[in-house]
Every structure is written in C-alpha cells, then in structure tokens.
Amino acid sequence: MKRVFPLFLAALLGGLAAIALHDRLTGAKAPEMVSTSGSTAGPQDVRFVNRPAGGVVSAMPDFVDAAERSVNAVVHVTTETMVQRDPFMDFFWGYRAPNPQPQRGAGSGVIISNDGYIVTNNHVIESADKIQVHLNDRRQLTAKVIGRDPSTDIALLKVDATELPTLSYGNSDDVRVGEWVLAVGNPMNLTSTVTAGIISAKARNINLLQNDPSRDIIPIESFIQTDAAVNPGNSGGALVDTQGQLIGINTAIASMNGQYAGYSFAVPVNIVKKVTSDLLEFGAVQRAYMGVSIRDVDQKLANELKLDRIRGVYVNGLSDGSAAKDSGMKPGDIIVKVASMDVNNVPQLQEQVGRFRPGDKVSVTVLREGREQVLEMTLRGKEGTTEPTKTADLSSALGADLVAATATELKALKLTGGVKVVNVNGGKFRSSGIREGFIITKIDQQAVTSPADVTKILERKKGGVLIEGMYPNGMKAYYALGI
C-alpha cells in the first residue's frame, strides 16, 4: 500500500503537467456546449433567438407605438339593467317585495370618430337601461345606443364629447395568419390592458350567435382567431395590428371555465365598418342576400364531383326570384369568388356578401363543369327588394327600432298589418315589458301598418297610450305606455 500511493501521486502530477504543456502549445479551447438533456456537443455556431450572427437584434415587432395609439381610444363600458318586477308574484306572495337591485355589466368599446361615436359588442349593452363610458383620461360619460346588430354582435354608441382620440380602420382582408396583433381592453375591470399574440386563423365559425329569424337575427360569423390573451371585460375592445390600426372587435373566447384558455375571436373590421355605416345612415343594417342554400366543399363532395382540388362553396339550391337565380346561377355551381375575393368556405362567403347592401351589383365567379364563369348579380334584401330599409328612430325616447312586419309574418299570425319591434335597447318600451319580436297592431285602437304610423300617433299623444299586438308564437299582449 505504501508503494502504490507514491506511484499514484507521480502519475497525477505528470498528467497535470502534460495538460498544462498542451494548453500552452495549442491555446485554450472554448468550453463544450451542454444541452438541457445533459448530452454534450462540440463547438457550434450558436445564436440567441431573434439575433443574427453579428449580435445585432433583429427586427422584432415593436408594440409600443401601437399600444400608445390604442389605449386612449379604447374605453371601459359599464351597464346597469333594471330587473323588472313581476306583479303576479307580488300578488301570489301577498306583499310587495323590495325593489330588485340592478344587474351590472362591463366591457370595452372603441372610439371611431372624434365626435363621440363608439363601437362595441351588442352583447355588452343588450337590454341595458343605463350605459356609462369611462375614458382613459378618467372622464365618465353617459352613452346612448344609436343602433345594434345581433347578427354580427356589433353595436354603435354615442357620447356627447368632441376631440376624442380615435383608432383608424385597417383592412381585415389584408391581415395574414401568423401576423402579430394586440388586444386592447378592460379585462376583469383592469382598465387599459394590452396583450399580444398572433393571428392563428381567419374566417372562423364557432356557432356563437343565435339564429332567430323571428327577430331578424341571421348570424354572420367569420371571426379572426388569435392567441392574444382575452378575458371577460375585453368584449367590444380593439384588435389592432403593429401599426395601431383597428382590424377587429374582440368578441369571444374559447374556454371550458369562462377564462382565457388560448384562443380568442374578433369580428373583422371590414364587417364592423359596414354595420356601423348602415346604423348611422339608415338606423338598421342593410342585409343583402344571394338567395342560395350552400355547403362547404369537402373531400367526399370533391370526389363525387371529380374536382381536381377542394375549393369554393357548393350551391345546393336557389330561391325563386332570388338574385342568384336571376343572374343565371344553377344548383351544382361552386362559388369560388365574390367580386375580387376568393371564398373557400361558407363563413368567407357570408362575410363577403354581408358587406353589400340590397341593390348593389357584384360579380360572382362560379365553377361549372370544370370551367369558371363570371355572373353579374344584383343583390336583394330579405323580402326580395333592392331598396334600403329605414327604421323609425325611437331609440332616444322609447329605446326601440321598428320595421314593417313582413307578409310572411302577417300571414302566419293571420294579421292584416303591423309593425315589428326588432330592437329593444332599454327605455320606455323595455320598462313597459315589450320584448323583441312583438308586432304592434294598434295604438289606442288605431291600426298601424308602418313605423311612420307609430311615430305619427305617439307624437300626438300625451300622458299615455295602450299598445296592442301579438308575438310570433301567437300570444296576444297589451301594454300601457307612458308618453
């Protein structure tokens, strides 16, 4: 044992001396790279993410300017909705219960003009009796509803103010999957919150909006999908690009628990522009229709039709007297383009057609027997008309919009005339109990057949009136309304 130790010590000193001599002769080498898995590798050309070889930081998106432009133009929207008392329950229990507390809600909105017009989601302000807008400079203003569109979940508000900061419109057609975007809003009452993500898909239909033809709600869903974090309170806020341009209105999240779980959805700004323009000019959205029943082209259908590739929207059938039929479209055609925009699924087609008004002329490209044909089409409204439909503007006083009941609705209820309530935004109509879809047939025993009749009668009345009518399910109703 005594002999082994001196030999070991001599070997160790000799090895160290050899290493030192080698380093002096060859120069020190760089240390080896060690991966997180514990394996080793020799010297590599290793770079930081987003840094070129020269060590200069690459062109990473700069969100600062976009955020600064956005936060002042995105407002916090709060609402109060009065819970209506049920007289029957008071009678049933034998006493008058205390007045119920108002229901409160919150969301966001985007200022689109410096004189006080604000766009938000319909579901943020629907049925609200009081709407407050909180600006980023801490001002608080009362807002009134100019109009709303449940079919796209968009609403337009107005506050009495000038020289407000605004967001300029971008072009949602031009945005591409993978682009960086910012979501700006007021999640969970945390005002002026900015989150970043990318566009992860376009033309998403998530079956969010309710289809209710009796209330003129025919959903148009062609959402921009992003992974920017969005939570309750972001609804109605802005989705902006890196230049700070508005490209969408944040509307929904995909979640199992009500909180953000990775995906959020925004209404494309090109739809928002059209809806708000219609509400300002006509008081109601001018919805154009082709008059077709359609379906997506899938692999099975492509095989049956012997298509060389899967694209477009298949036409199952045409309505009599429709714009599509008059243009020469046939069942079996495949719609591949509306105007200059390609369409490859039903949401894309609905989005493109939804940007037009009745009476607009548009070129539609179809694939028929393997060849493309261009059809010239004049789009029509729901009842086959090409003229815009205006509503009686009762929003300010009565909190409602009215349209003439259609011939189909009147026939189903065996009525000779009536005026349909398509929007109730609060105000006297709602406080009296009138709900959307109600068809007014008489006011103080005077028959009404148009919104102008309602306006004329109410303008002459003082004190109160008795409104008589019927709901789409056939139930008759009578309401006393104070004027």
Kindly summarize this structure in a few lines.
This protein is α+β, with helices and mostly antiparallel strands and 483 residues long. It has helices spanning 4-26, 64-71, 87-93, 122-125, 269-282, 299-305, 323-327, 346-353, 407-413, 427-432, 451-460, and strands spanning 33-34, 40-41, 74-81, 103-111, 117-121, 130-134, 140-149, 154-159, 180-185, 193-204, 223-226, 238-240, 246-254, 263-268, 292-296, 313-318, 334-338, 341-342, 361-368, 371-378, 392-393, 400-404, 419-424, 439-443, 446-447, 464-470, 476-482. The chain contains eleven helices and 27 strands.
Mean pLDDT: 84
How many strand elements?
Answer: 27
Shape: globular
Structural class: alpha+beta
Number of helices: 11
Share in β-strands: 25-35%
**What is the end-to-end distance?**
115 Å
Q: Roughly how many Å is the radius of gyration?
A: 31 Å
| Largest β-sheet summary | 7 strands, antiparallel
CATH topology of the largest domain: Thrombin, subunit H
CATH architecture of the largest domain: Beta Barrel
Q: Give the proportion of residues in helices.
A: 10-25%
Total individual domains:
3
Q: Which CATH class of the largest domain is shown?
A: Mainly Beta
Low-confidence parts, pLDDT < 50 over ≥5 residues? 28-58
